[in-house]
Amino acid sequence: MSDRPIILGIVGDSAAGKTTLTRGIAQVLGPENVTVICTDDYHRYDRKQRAEIGITALHPDCNHLDIMQQHLSLLRTGQAILKPIYNHTTGTFDAPEYIKPSKFVIVEGLLGYATRTIRDSYDVKVYLAPPEELRTQWKVKRDIMKRGYTEEQVLAEIKKREPDSEDFIRPQRESADVVVSFYPPEADNESNLSVRLVLRPTIPHPDFTEILGLGSESFKPAIRLELDRDMGKPVDVLEVDSHATSDQVNELEMILCSELPHLRGFCTAQGNPEIGKLIGTTGEVLQSYPLALTQLLVAYHMMKAIHVY
Ligand SMILES: Nc1ncnc2c1ncn2[C@@H]1O[C@H](COP(=O)(O)OP(=O)(O)OP(=O)(O)O)[C@@H](O)[C@H]1O
Ligand SMILES: O=C(CO)[C@H](O)[C@H](O)COP(=O)(O)O
Questions:
Q1: Which of 237, 224, 225, 245 has its CA nearest to residue 289?
Q2: What phi and psi, each to the nearest 5 degrees, are found at residue 289?
Q3: Percent of the chain predicted with pLDDT > 90
Q4: pLDDT in tens, 263-290
Q5: Which stretches make up the Phosphoribulokinase/uridine kinase domain (predicted)?
Q6: Does ligand 2 lie within 6 Å of residue 164's CB atom?
Q7: Best residue among 18, 20, 22, 143 to mutate for probing ligand 1, ranked by most atoms within 8 Å of CB
Q8: ipTM above 0.95 for this complex
Q9: Which residue(s) pair with 227 in the sheet?
Q10: 47-103 per-position pLDDT tens digit
Q11: 215, 208, 269: which is closest to 237 by C-alpha?
């Protein structure tokens, strides 16, 4: 049993869904057991300075990656940090806050896998990669609603950032144990998203081959497991369609949870009705089975890590 915090990284471009997934995983693990760190707090420059210098928040030079690295090392050994705070409402920094790590630490942000030492700080690494069109929709709506921007400003910012997204954000996908892509289904009338989970052999995943290969036909075609390549390397890919039924997903969840009996109580829809819920871009509450399964898979890895270390 680990006597140090288990650290999860959730990395991806702006509005890729990091905060949404982080909240969901914290629900599964129990919010009282989870400390969340957003790496936006390690920006080196405030909004005005960034505009003056002509640098984007995505550039490594625009972030105190060295301090982030130090803080991750401290958190990994259970020590407290004095963390800076970047305020998205004012675009400036607030007074730092004292943070003592809980049993689980989730570190979410833009450049979480930027250096080898930072990468080595995590027990589990997730990268979020929605299609760019969907990410743009999410960013436009979220930045208008919550961060006070106009649509033109958001679209101009995305355009300005694209070279840095290409050079510094997207290459981090290669370092992840799990790459998560929510995507819209082909049928227009479905509002829920499907998910594609790339499972790299860098950590031991649940034996989905046994579950889906030999298991009941009732999973197909809504839930599929296939071999593929991602950034040139062989991977397993688990896809859950938006139209997967609650019974299908529950069956998969129960099989997954049977490996970790103490996860069972709070991982299923019956055990935890909050699982798979999210706040949509217009503030509406949605529930998504593909999201529920993703939260559960990541929570599974966190729980496993507790027993390995
Ligand atoms: N799985 C999902 N299903 C539906 N909508 C989602 C999902 N994930 C994110 N969204 C929508 O996209 C918006 C942006 O997501 P979120 O705030 O989680 O992104 P982020 O990666 O944390 O962004 P940033 O790094 O810019 O803070 C949310 O307001 C939410 O409405
Ligand atoms: O990409 C982002 C991650 O949230 C933000 O845009 C970045 O943190 C800069 O913040 P702001 O847009 O408030 O100036």
A1: 245
A2: -65, -40
A3: 69
A4: 666 666 666 777 888 877 677 888 888 9
A5: 7-183
A6: no
A7: 20
A8: yes
A9: 236
A10: 999 999 999 999 999 999 999 999 999 999 999 999 999 999 999 999 999 999 999
A11: 208
Question: What ranges make up the beta strands (E) of 200-249?
Answer: 223-230, 233-240
* Dihedral, CA of residue 302, residue 304, residue 305 and residue 309, to nearest 10: 150
What residues does ligand 1 touch, defined as CB less than 6 Å away? 12, 14-20, 138, 142, 182, 193, 278, 280-281, 288, 291
Amino acid symbol at 69: Q
Closest CA to 158 of 169, 145, 171, 146: 169
Please say whether the beta carbons of 109 and 57 come within 8 A.
Answer: no
Structure tokens given for 95: 């007074």
Q: How far is the CA of 57 from the centre of ligand 2 (A)?
A: 6
Query: What is the pTM assigned to this prediction?
Result: 0.94
Q: Tell me the average pLDDT of the chain.
A: 90
State the residue for tokens 């355009």.
159
* pLDDT one-digit tens code per residue, 107-164: 999 999 999 999 999 999 999 999 999 999 999 999 999 888 999 999 999 999 999 9
Which DSSP symbol is given to 214?
I
Give, using CA atoms, the residue closest to atom 26 of ligand 1: 14
Question: Which numbered ligand comes closest to the C-alpha of 126?
Answer: 1
Ligand 2 atom, smallest distance to 38 CA: 4
H helix runs in the chain, sequence order: 18-29, 47-53, 65-76, 116-119, 132-147, 151-164, 208, 246-258, 261-267, 289-308
User: Is 30's C-beta closer than 6 angstroms to any atom of ligand 2?
Assistant: no
- What's the pLDDT at 270? 65
Residues 6+ apart with CB under 8 A from 249: 223, 240, 269, 289, 292, 293
Q: How confident is the model at residue 1 (pLDDT cuts 50, 70, 90)?
A: low
| Bond from prior residue into 234 cis (ω within 30 degrees of 0) | no
